[in-house]
UniProtKB/TrEMBL annotation:
It comes from Robertmurraya siralis. Keywords: Signal. Its main location: other. The keyword Signal applies. This is Sugar ABC transporter substrate-binding protein. InterPro entries: Bact_Solute-Bind_Prot2, Peripla_BP_I, SBP_2_dom. GO terms for cellular component: outer membrane-bounded periplasmic space. One of its GO terms (molecular function) is carbohydrate binding. Residues 1-22 form the signal peptide. SUPFAM superfamilies: Periplasmic binding protein-like I. It is found in: Cell envelope. It holds the Pfam family Peripla_BP_4.
Length: 371
């Protein structure tokens, strides 16, 4: 009888030990102490903007109980989906993703939603899916409008050759940027201030103040850079070779971002028939700030990614804390109206570069020459 009691006691002790160890193991992989709380997928490491974002995201959670892991898709939708699956296997509660291709990313975020993960589209909207909960963004239409307004404000005379360039057709933002730019440029094309130099599709539509998505697609098909500086060089060289003397001289150039702007600027500067050019940019990349100081790039649209990162990570922490994030508007992604938090943009040129980028401690003065 005593022997049987000892066996039963041992079994009870063994049971409680196993239960205790299981509970410990569960607490290390679940809740706020799990391996990864917030998964972040960024489009590429080949652009300075995204590399800077990586560190800023890490810094944003440095004093938090939550953890993050950041993966890069390197311009591949297949890699992007694989990255999301990797993060889902690590038990994330929130996914922040800036898609390489807004529509192709739908499959990846739908997998996240099935796992009960909250999806935040970061800087680029994910389209044609209902599996997006929030969108943190700069006002992309305002970016394009600001670029175009700079060209208008700094152009003299009439019949000024206008060269149009755009981002990747796979990126919804490229359409929003172009939409904003066209809203400002089209009236000035219609009144003869500008003459389109490098897009027959844009010329055919120059009397339309508002373009459909399909109409913009036709224009982007001719002037896309795919966000690739080398492709931008090739496009610019092709356009300049085809252009007659009447489309040279003093010109205006709508360039979508800083990387392509520098490439296009260098190409135009090398053409002896180009007397001068005004060219836009976006992202306030360090190399382009030096170009602006040197007079080789006219302006950039400064999107303070410190604020955007703060907004995105703040939203993620609110979700992890069981709160409902605050939003400022919505974006139609083709399937649903996605709740969005928008961040303002700032135009930077030689006149205010020190105030906006040095005095604000975004960059240090020692990083530039001739400031």
């Amino acid at each position: 009888m005593k022997k049987g009691f000892k066996v039963i006691s041992f079994l009870f002790v063994a049971f409680f030990v196993v239960a205790f160890l299981a509970a410990c193991n569960s607490s290390s992989t679940g809740g706020s102490s799990k391996g990864v709380s917030v998964g972040i997928v960024l489009p590429t490491k080949d652009e300075p903007r995204w590399v800077q974002d990586e560190q800023r995201f890490k810094d944003a959670l440095a004093d938090s109980e939550y953890t993050t892991e950041i993966l890069f898709s390197q311009g591949s939708s297949a890699k992007e989906k694989e990255n999301v699956e990797t993060l889902l296997n690590k038990g994330i509660d929130v996914l922040i993703i800036s898609p390489h291709d807004g529509e192709a990313a739908g499959a990846a975020v739908e997998a996240a939603k099935k796992d009960g993960v909250t999806v935040i589209a970061y800087d680029r909207l994910i389209t044609n899916t209902d599996a997006v909960d929030y969108y943190v963004t700069f006002d992309s239409v305002a970016v394009g409008a600001a670029q175009a307004q700079y060209l208008v404000d700094n152009t003299n005379g009439s019949g000024v050759p206008l060269y149009l360039y755009a981002g990747a057709a796979s990126d919804n933002n490229a359409f929003l940027f172009f939409e904003g730019a066209w809203s400002v440029l089209q009236p000035k094309i219609a009144d003869g201030t500008f003459k389109i130099a490098n897009s027959s599709e844009a010329t055919a539509l120059q009397d339309k103040s508002e373009l459909t998505r399909d109409e913009m697609s036709k224009i982007l098909g001719q002037v896309t850079t795919n966000w690739d500086p080398n492709e931008a060089i090739n496009k610019a060289q092709t356009h300049l070779t085809a252009a007659g003397a009447e489309m040279k001289g003093d010109v205006a150039i709508l360039a979508p971002n800083d990387g392509t702007s520098r490439s296009i600027a260098d190409t135009f500067a090398a053409d002896s028939e180009i007397s001068s050019y005004i060219i836009t940019g976006q992202d306030a990349e360090k190399a382009s700030i030096q170009y602006i100081i040197d007079g080789k790039q006219s302006m950039t649209v400064f999107k303070d990614v410190r604020t955007l990162v703060k907004d995105a990570m703040g939203m993620a922490v609110e979700i992890l804390d069981g709160k409902t994030p605050e939003t400022t508007g919505t974006y139609d992604n083709g399937e649903i109206e996605v709740k969005a938090k928008q961040t303002d943009v700032i135009v930077v040129d030689q006149a205010n570069v020190k105030e906006e980028l040095i005095d604000s401690e975004y960059y240090e003065a020692s990083e530039f020459t001739g400031l």
